[in-house]
Amino acid sequence: MDIIAKLKPLYDDLIRMQMAAFMKDNEFVRTCNELNITDQYTEVQNNAAKASNDTWAWLGIDSISYEDVLAGLLNQLYTHHSSEFITIICKLAATLILHSYYIPSVSEIRRDLQLLGATSNQLQLIDISWQTEERNYHKKARVLKDLCVSRATGGTAEEEYYQTLRTSLSKNSLLKDKMPNFILNNTTVYEFWQFIKYKHGSYAERRFFLQEAFERLLDATLTMGDASPHQDSILEIALQINEQYISETWRKALVRLKEDPEAAITSARSLVELVCKHILDESGAEYDDAADLPKLYKLAASQLNLSPDQHTEQLFKQILGGCQTVIEGLGALRNKLGDAHGKSKLKARPSDRHAALAVNLSGSMCSFLLQTYLHLKKIK
């Protein structure tokens, strides 16, 4: 199927990201339901099925060209839903990233969307998903092992994937000593092949060798995303309002706790900012996108009837005033110990406990804000 010329770069990059294969997945259909584009997806899928003249459908064999389905969906959305097109594609791409086998970069699709008029706020969904994937070291370790097994047993391995994954994992100070030495020593797929083809003769021996070689790395990455006790409740609340970037920013902060305390503090502050902006957006309140965190919180608290000056009872005023102080402290902690600004060598470096304080404070405040928001939304 022909694609609108203006959309050709975007289409090609989505194909490279395996969007066509993802369109067969139930998660893609769920996302279509959330975006209210299920009818459009069903229509182009049916059209592709008719065009395929599939005589084997009765056997359960799907020979539909999902490349054509993707082209048809893009054409239809761009033509008939132009005002929502960018937002829809950003959401689909963000979901794809989190459910993909592996995507080495999102720079090209970001550029495509920017050329089509995407704003930084719209691209944030893709950025948050990508940052989450960048911290998913267990997935990276599994994909790297799969690449090695494939090449060692007569298959192929993407050079870009191998080098990107090898570099990312080896740069992590917690993982470098857990990586197989042959991965550290062999910088390309060709060099790895020269090593493995003389190491073991049969495919079965190579598979067993690689499984054992990657065991320490896989075990180490499996526990890197351990969450604090109230992680699940916060994620559940965030997902109830269907804002993926909130839950994924929380995940990012949790992953960074032990590995990168400075980044965890910055992520914790960003999480509260995102929740405040979400509440303000949903409430239709105007605000300066560049406003600092205390100002954003005061505006959001006012929408939720959580400002101290909205209550006369002294106990409530004291508690809500304490919440405001926590937010101010988070902003100050981020400026003092976070990674958002350059620091001199003499400036204090955060410890794990500093990062844990920031992440847990942000988690508790976001839980409180979101629960209040949902309660007010429910009773209206």
Q: What's the count of strands?
A: 0
The run of helices and strands is HHHHHHHHHHHHHHHHHHHH
**What portion of residues belong to β-strands?**
under 5%
- Sheet with the most strands, sense and barrel status: none
SS-based structural class? mainly alpha
Tally of discrete structural domains? 3
What would you call the shape?
Answer: flat
Q: Give the terminus-to-terminus CA distance.
A: 47 Å
Percent helix among the residues?
over 70%
The chain-level mean pLDDT equals 82
> Could you name the ranges where pLDDT drops below 50 across 5 or more consecutive residues?
56-61, 226-243, 338-347
What is the CA-based Rg, rounded?
24 Å
The oligomeric state of the chains shown is single chain
> How many DSSP helices?
20
What does this 3D model show about the protein?
The protein is an all-alpha fold and 380 residues long. The protein folds into three domains: 5-132, no CATH class; 137-222, no CATH class; 231-379. Helix content is 71%, strand content 0%. Helix 8 crosses helix 16 (244-259) and helix 16 (244-259) packs antiparallel against helix 20 (352-379). The two termini are 47 Å apart. The relative contact order is 0.07. Residues 56-61, 226-243 and 338-347 have low confidence and may be disordered.
